[in-house]
Amino acid sequence: MAEEEATFAEETGVSDRLRQDLPHSARMYDYYLGGKTNYAVDRTAAEDVIRRFPAIRTVAQINRAFVHRSARFLARERGIRQFIDIGTGIPTSPNLHEVVQREVPRARIVYADNDPIVLVYADNLLASTPEGATEYVEADVTEPAALLDAVEAADCLDFSQPIGLSLNAVLHFVTDEMGAYSVVETLVDRLAPGSHLAISHCTPDFDPDAWAAITDIYTDGGTPLQVRSRAEVERFFKGLELVEPGVEVAHQWRPEAGEGPTLVTNAQSSLYAGVARKV
To answer: Can you give the pTM of this predicted structure?
Structure first.
């Protein structure tokens, strides 16, 4: 972290919560994407993952491309004008609100994360178009009712109208013991009909040995990880109307030219993705 960023963290009282002595999933993801918001402990753990699964950088790129494609799809083709992005992570431009507001300048977006490092960079998430709006709330996805209360209190979104809910690359950090499926059910229940849920989720289906090792690296570093099969990911969409092509390997979900890696194997992707509508 740059000196001025560390100073800001100190001034805002979050420096003692940044876990600089342990690897952190958001900072590791930043490292996979070639970012600089990470510490030596994150780079060491990330390199350990890379040794066991060299395609992890590709997985991160594929995920980011899906986030952009699915957001554009919802804005362009489904008429969604407001979004909740949970598990935002470290801002990396273009962020979700930048992608959406290029399509619909008046779109409104609320970001939610429980990671103190995101708070340090929250200003990067609030640079809305004049017509639209963005907000950031600190909240934990494992407490979904309280999270939605915080989003509503931000007074940015109209919960009587459809919302695009983004749960990308976050649910594999919510284990079954944490109630992953009930978390998603609680979140979706509060949304109006016509809302859409977008999910991307790492999977061991194509390389179980590598993902068993990766799970150990994250869990040993203090971040429980549970990757899931296609059927387990599909279960998150129970009761919703899946958009074609359904739950698919992420680089094959409505691919667009020039939007992320495409000439990769399913094993290199190791990420399922899907979008569904609440009827």
So the answer is: 0.92
